[in-house]
Specification:
The protein is of the alpha+beta class. It is about 20% helix and about 35% strand. The chain folds into 3 domains: about 160 residues, Probable tRNA modification gtpase trme, domain 1 (Gyrase A, domain 2, 2-Layer Sandwich), CATH 3.30.1360.120; about 80 residues, 2-Layer Sandwich (Alpha-Beta Plaits); about 80 residues, Elongation Factor Tu (Ef-tu), domain 3 (Beta Barrel).
């Protein structure tokens, strides 16, 4: 299947990006140095092209009931101007996707991961048939640019979008920046694609903003964001940034084969009447046989996915396997996520088998770094 291209594809190629297939899209992997891009986000600000993310509108009188049936978090408690993290489950309680839902005055804006957008849309459409809601896929109409890092507010404002006093997970209509640099339209003037969405959200652990806007205005805004001081950042650094925070990646750390109970995501299950609710309740009652844990290397080595993990001591025994791993540019040590036997406790010493080499590590609770998107 031919890979889709972002509305910013020519910008990435002009910047010398190394491209890669991701979720059905041809996206930048890095612009020369993953470590340099990672540090730009932690120290100043980076700009990401997230146009591969799914973008679905749920509207009509049955919109709230539709989303409540489809996802685990309690959308009835979500006020206009706020977003929350939620899960889409299978009937037997596995995780189809983890995603964000934004409530605007016109309805609900649903943003799934690129590889799972079709599956999430199918779940919503099934619920819509029972509730009278309308589900609209606007992927062809919208681009998404994220600006993440301590300087993100100043940079987005300098690029022509006033972020005001948005708090973490606040959202609003986005005054669509015209090609000349001045904003047109106004907050709350309509639903995408006629108007965009501005949200204080992200996947890096830093203060940041995600801007969903019409594809025709995205290239000029991208240019202004870089001119204002943001460094272009691609998928490679996005992965190291999220892993330093211990954020799970669907397809690696969570999947239809994992439950919210063992993944430690029960905090995102607050609704009722959602698909998979009975299976989730049964898994919660039974308790997990394994848990998703953080692993910080204390020896020398960089863990990757699918590395066996064993206990340490006089009689080492297998206790699990890593699901993600990398070198942390901030800590300058290896870090990983992995599923470990429920008996393994925080602070326990373990050994990770990295391509046949034993690497010492400690079981820890993420985040691995001192960062917060709420700052």
């Amino acid at each position: 299947m031919e890979l889709r291209r972002s509305p910013l594809d020519d910008r990435h190629r002009q910047l010398g990006a190394t491209m890669t297939g991701f979720g059905g899209w041809d996206m930048p992997l890095h612009y020369g140095s993953v470590v340099a891009e990672h540090r730009a986000v932690r120290e100043s600000a980076g700009a990401f092209d997230l146009s591969h993310l799914g973008t679905l509108l749920v509207t009509g009188s049955g919109a709230q009931d539709c989303v409540q049936r489809s996802f685990t978090n309690d959308v009835a408690a979500l006020p206009v101007g706020r977003a929350h993290y939620t899960l889409c489950l299978t009937d037997d309680g596995g995780i189809v996707d983890d995603l964000l839902v934004y409530r605007l005055d016109w309805g609900l804006f649903v943003v799934p991961n690129a590889a799972n957008a079709a599956a999430v849309r199918a779940v919503l459409e099934e619920s819509a048939a029972a509730t009278g809601a309308t589900v609209t896929d606007v992927k062809d109409d919208l681009a998404c640019i994220a600006v993440q890092g301590p300087a993100s507010a100043d940079i987005v404002t300098a690029a022509g979008v006033d972020v005001g006093d948005l708090g973490y997970l606040d959202c609003a209509g986005l005054p669509v920046p015209a090609p000349g640099g001045s904003a047109v339209g106004g907050a709350g003037t309509g639903a995408p694609p006629d108007a965009g969405v501005l949200a204080r959200s992200g996947y890096t652990g830093e203060r940041g903003y995600e801007l969903f806007l019409p594809v025709e205005t995205a290239p000029s805004l991208w240019d202004r964001i870089l001119q204002a001081g943001a460094e272009p950042v691609a998928l490679g650094a996005r992965d190291t940034l999220r892993l330093e925070m211990g954020y799970p990646l669907h397809g690696s750390d969570i999947s239809p084969a994992t439950s919210p109970v063992e993944a430690g995501l029960g905090w995102a299950v607050k609704g009722s009447g959602f698909r998979g609710e009975a299976a989730y309740a049964a898994a919660k009652e039974a308790g997990p046989a394994r848990r998703l844990r953080g692993l910080r290397v204390t020896g020398r080595g960089i863990p990757r996915a699918h590395c066996p993990v064993s206990s340490r001591g006089d009689a080492p025994a297998p206790v699990g396997e890593t699901t993600s791993g990398t070198f942390s540019p901030t800590l300058r040590v290896g870090v990983a996520l992995g599923y470990l036997d429920a008996a393994v406790q925080l602070g326990d010493a373990v050994t990770i088998d990295v391509r046949g080499k034993p690497v010492d590590a400690e079981v820890v609770r993420p985040p691995f770094v001192d960062a917060s998107p709420k700052d």
